[in-house]
From TrEMBL:
One of its GO terms (cellular component) is plasma membrane. The complex is composed of two ATP-binding proteins (PstB), two transmembrane proteins (PstC and PstA) and a solute-binding protein (PstS). Keywords: Lipoprotein, Palmitate, Phosphate transport, Signal, Transport. Belongs to the PstS family. This is Phosphate-binding protein PstS 2. It comes from the Bacteria.
Amino acid sequence: MKSMIKKITTTALFGVLAVSAFAGCGGASSSSNGSSDAGSDAAKFDASKTISVVTREEGSGTRDAFTELTGVLVKDGDNKTDNTTTSAVTINSTEAVITNVKDNEAAIGYISLGSLNDTVKALKIGGVEATADNVKSGDYAVSRPFNIAYKGELSDVAQDFVDYIMSSDGQKIVSDNGYVTVSENAAYSGKKPSGKISVAGSSSVSPVMEKLAEAYQKVNTNAKVEIQTSDSSAGMQSAMGGTCDIGMASRDLKDEEKSALKVETIAKDGIAVIVNNANTCDDLTLDQVKSIYTGETTVWSDIIK
């Protein structure tokens, strides 16, 4: 009887060790009887699938920042080459990227950290989680500024809105929505002038800008803020052309944009690399991300060992 108890205990111990061996990108967990856990998404993931690479459209500030930070974009003097694989699926909004990855187990994409929700999984990069604290500390490598830009002097009401964004009230909204603050200014104390403000550009900046506009219009009921969402390049073109008061960009401004516009950073944001919740991978290096996005690595089993 004692021999039988000892045998059962030893078997149970091996079962625990077997489960722990499959942590991270190592594979799906198993139950103690050796069968797959049918209720677990991770247990169902097929690592032999071809990686479905999802990217943003040209002109997207998120794409510009992501490709530069991961090395997918190669610079040679003034020349820049985006080496994103031609097989990538190009998506023109943050929400559409999330939907695509949520609906495709083999997909990988990237989005603004502030837009992340639990329908997809954010990967660690080099062992560092994609969080606002890690962006602020500089530990998370894939991060970029949220910029606004405008041509010449702003109207009284547009300047008052910018003052609100950079006040402690505005920066609290930035923080509350998962982004990193950049200002330690005092509370808003503007004169609340009347008028209309037009803001245009980045679909990554738009979500927090909408929250800022909503809050500002509550404290200044004389103002109306209209937001048009497109991409960073379109936002800068609109600002330079005078078709909007304030342009939004989720990247650093290009030289020609800097020469024509005044720029101000209103927040910092991480770029979350996301996969389907069923994917067993939890962590990638920057080199692995680059390899996937340039088309060098094409199958999940090359990553998930």
